[in-house]
Amino acid sequence: MRYRIILLATTLAACGCGGGEDPIIRDSTFLPVYRYQIEQDRDSEDQFELSVQWDGVRYVFAVRFSGSYGLTGLYDRSSGVTSIAPDSELTVETGYASPLIGAFRAVVIEEIATMPTGEFSAGAWMIVTGNDTVRIDVASGTGGVALALNGGTAVSFEWPKFTELFAPGSAAPTWQQAASASFQVLRIAALQARTAFAALVDATRVSFTNTPDVRSCSMFPGAPPPDVLNTGERVLTWLGSADLGFDLRFTNCWVDLAGEDQDYLYRGEIALTGWRSSGDGSNRLIFVGFGGDEFGNRVPGGVSYLDLDFARTVPNSAGGSDFDPAADYTLSGGFAIGFVQP
Fold first, then answer.
1. d(Cα 77, Cα 209) in Å, to the nearest integer?
2. How is residue 14 annotated by DSSP?
């Protein structure tokens, strides 16, 4: 794992964890902002796979974090804003089962700000698909984007219309569909930084015994969707060493984001292995992650999704909840991730 910044060698107050130690001192404090980095081994065939189901039609994206620094940016814990830094790069291939066939490369040009809702509030990126290059600029303050094909005249879309460009049956040109798909992939990839950090914070509460830490999830305010429990749970289990890390399981776990209409139901499992952390003389965590250390070295492990499903829920007219037919996701595969003092 490589970083744009260099960490000075210091006497670490929090443990720089080896394979058999407790991975963190419980009274260590997290910083308000971290630089995150997501990447994969260049020589590995492992990949991060995103499956999106929209009105019963499934799109499959095989994602490689392919740039020199993979996907990197800042995560602000208080605001929940996750940025994606310039030169972050993804290579995406679509599966034979996907209506959108082919591959594209997405490169961030100007820093993207990803809001907790998943929408972008600023930034620009480009995609290369076939012989075409498409530039996508976020229209700050207007809630949309402008697309320009091969340097031509830009075409503007509001967010809902932009998102629907690759919906089932879309008649949009392939380059516009690919641009829309790249937005889905980039925002889901950025969301993984928040998901992994939440797991890190959660892990500090575990007693570091093999006794699972069981917590109830949010309760649906009315009737839940069909075949879903009113209140699910998440179970976090420490597997005995920093290398083995944690097992995180979700059973009908509904996450109610206060003040947002972006609530999700999680089902499935995440393996979090190769934990490393280090701190400074004030007991602040200046590095923490899975699959890499504070010196930029890769270690075995990372974040592995074992068919984790998460689906957005929306209120219905009866006061209960239904699934959003355009927001049903499955994640598999994985990556290494680290959070470092910016």
1. 28
2. S
Question: What band does 258 get if pLDDT is binned at 50, 70 and 90?
Answer: low
Tokens (6 digits) for 21: 């130690």
- Over residues 90-137, the pLDDT tens digits come to 988 876 555 555 788 999 999 999 887 778 999 999 999 888 999 999
Strand extents, DSSP E, 164-258: 213-219, 231-238, 246-255
| Residue 77 near residue 32 (C-beta atoms within 8 A) | yes
Cβ partners under 8 Å of residue 102, min gap 6 = 93, 94, 129, 130, 174, 178
Termini Cα distance of the chain? 15
Instruction: Answer yes or no: are the C-beta atoms of 68 and 87 closer than 8 Å.
Output: yes
Beta partners for residue 82, in sequence order: 75, 114
Among 113, 38, 104, 29, CA closest to 76: 113
For the chain, what is the mean pLDDT? 81
CB atoms within 10 A of CB 152: 10
pTM: 0.83
Decide if 72 contacts 85 (C-beta within 8 A): yes
Residue spans of the domains in the chain: they are 29-340
Q: What distance in Å separates the CA atoms of residue 67 and residue 146, rounded to the nearest whole number? A: 24
Quick: pLDDT tens for 31-77.
899 999 998 876 666 678 888 888 778 888 888 888 777 899 999 98
Query: How many CA atoms, within 13 angstroms, populate the side-chain half-sphere of residue 54?
Result: 18
